[in-house]
Model the fold of this input.
Amino acid sequence: MSEIKDITKRDEDFAKWYTDVVTKAGLIDYSSVKGSMIIAPYGYAIWENMQKVLDKMFKETGHENVQMPMFIPESLLNIEKDHVNGFAPEVAWVTYGGKEKLDERLCVRPTSEVLFCDYYKKIIKSYRDLPKLYNQWCTIVRWEKTTRPFLRSREILWQEGHTMHATKEEALEETLKMLHVYEEFQKKYLAIPVLVGKKTDKEKFAGAEASYSLEAMMYDGVALQNGTSHYFGQGFARAFGIQFLNKENKLETPYQTSWGVTTRMIGSIIMVHGDDRGLVLPPNIAPVKVIIIPISNKEDVISATENLSKELKEHNISVKVDNSSKTPGFKFAEAEVKGYPVRIEIGPRDLEQGLVTIVRRDTLEKATIKKEEVVEYLSKLFEEIQDNLYTKALKRRDTMIYEANNYEEFKEIAQNKPGFIKANWCGNVLCEEKVKDDFGMKSRCLIEDEEVGETCSICGKKAKYRLYFGKQY
Amino acid sequence: MSEIKDITKRDEDFAKWYTDVVTKAGLIDYSSVKGSMIIAPYGYAIWENMQKVLDKMFKETGHENVQMPMFIPESLLNIEKDHVNGFAPEVAWVTYGGKEKLDERLCVRPTSEVLFCDYYKKIIKSYRDLPKLYNQWCTIVRWEKTTRPFLRSREILWQEGHTMHATKEEALEETLKMLHVYEEFQKKYLAIPVLVGKKTDKEKFAGAEASYSLEAMMYDGVALQNGTSHYFGQGFARAFGIQFLNKENKLETPYQTSWGVTTRMIGSIIMVHGDDRGLVLPPNIAPVKVIIIPISNKEDVISATENLSKELKEHNISVKVDNSSKTPGFKFAEAEVKGYPVRIEIGPRDLEQGLVTIVRRDTLEKATIKKEEVVEYLSKLFEEIQDNLYTKALKRRDTMIYEANNYEEFKEIAQNKPGFIKANWCGNVLCEEKVKDDFGMKSRCLIEDEEVGETCSICGKKAKYRLYFGKQY
Done:
């Protein structure tokens, strides 16, 4: 029991709390391969649920899955200059195959723009071949110095969409469409509110014309970039010589996008919804929605447990029964660490009256419900929990976004209040650099639908944009 | 049209026929990364269907998915001696991370026994922790010199199950259980009959005590090993120092298995069922079961096409409509190359009478069916096609298995008849080596339920086993 309950308090040491939760909930384990983690069954099951939902959303928006090579020859990586400068410092290089030294070293893909371009060059000949809407689920590698489970890892499980279009308008539309697919997914399934906007030039993806991101705020006020969608214009396509014959039989260069999300989203669930007792999973993404715990070993309790489990399964509610020999107290604590959305306790006294006790993980509220009404009760309860988690996260986030109209205000907030700072910005990268130097904060994204103040909150010159700042994971 | 129909005849040049089919059916594309292929949307969709079915079967047999690191430090690979000797010559080595030379080089996993052992050492302490039944879906790398799409590739998509058990009996049971899960899958879904048996010591997996395999016979009589299941005994566990406290509180070493299948199964579908017109997919694994081709552009034909497509979708039948501007002849040819199990043609004359034409891909037989009876007809037809493909493959295979009771007979068959040779064997590896030197044939597997002849078909000494030989991909 002590092992389970031994979670650092969230407000005492947030970083340690996070590490306690990921390991004690059984999401990951450390491996002896430096910088790589093991995703344990419970953690992987969350990822499988994410994949299932997202894959369906991708297919409904016309995308097809493919599988590209995992190695990139150095000469291929070198074709687009901004891209290679951005990624070369952080890739793993394969130099030997068996005992033979390779003529050309290969990097393990850190992202696959160049591989897709190399493929698209081959298969795109005519306007009839467009758009190409491909996606791949795979592992990428980035040689990070310091790593944290789900947040920063040398190996990352993700999906990467790569598309090519005949027109700029269509490519821009795709970039935003997928950004909003992510936004909808994170809101509906992960119960996480996100700021959605364009990255500044300083923060955009290596080789992109425009990058858009989803910025979630963690419990400690720090940002987690929870997904990105990029518009490349014709940059890569030109560098790779990709051209197609348009309807007028003239050669044109197509327009490109890419977009991706990773297992990092699991980290955001933990840091947005988790509490001192452990993980709190939104029902829409939880691998196990209900844990049933029999309070005694009596035959009728055990059989009632089995019957209820069977009934829930018949209604497609994922359920687990804990009939181990541990004490009920230990089982409750474990169920809380694991963040199952709902716990059902079945005890002899309740049972005599045909009742069971239902405890929701998000509020820890208890209700006593007639056995025959459980299924109906649950279907409403899941919705309530899902809504509550989202609303709570949204409220909390909104109270942690502060407005700074000048650098005095900015400083006051940055030094005293964790969270995001909404500022007015002149557009000069020097202002971003100043904020980074002074407070260790980077710009998050430009928010288009907010009114822009008169003057830049950093330098005082004329402001052009509404820009959010925040520390980041 | 010529591009589509231009498939080499199967009996003229089987290797070229195979390459034509994989590329012209749109299953793969070549990449400029040597030794790696691109799995195109249609090929990947077949793999997704395989994954869906197998993953369900694995979960129903109690297995959980995890994700292990993709890199293996050299020292970890070196722990089990037979294993490292088997794999070290064919791995890709990462020696640099960014600009820094690594202290210890890492290989990209060729298989993950050592990674799982390293993990199991950490998490297995007591009999209560057993069995551990883990599986992972991932990409592995083997540095092959010559490669062929799906059959032999530097990067292989597969699943690998890795389990640990308290007793030898349980581990052996698991090894055979998963072997039979594969057998059932290949029979029911891929319509492929397989020989199932134990590998000889010479042919077993590096580090295993016993290896079992599924051996399918391709159209040309050559074997394709379509999956393996290994029993490791305590070899790896001892090398890694994995121990658990049994119920009597004494330390014991657990028993281990591993088992895997790969995208190679797609190659076996092609080479077992394909014909001169292209791919032939069994309905139970086909991403698109029905292609509907309107024979004219008339409004009522197009709307009948759309209505039928909608109706089939409502009955969960995967369907595609080809309403491109190509000629019907071209569309038919393309549908045949792609191996859609059923083609439905809708033309104006049929339509007047409320009929459609249904063509099955396996036999190319045509039937004219009332529109309102299509769904019912199809559900029976899919079963018929699935059964027919299996029966045909089984019959063909069985006519290509020959018995050799002495080396004269062996030689006569080996030199004249493509297929498998069933032989009696004394158990001496020299006999296997002789067959390999003389005819380029390796032993496939030991078949236990057949009677063993008196004398070894190779050396003439007393025979102990029934052993099949055959050339292999």
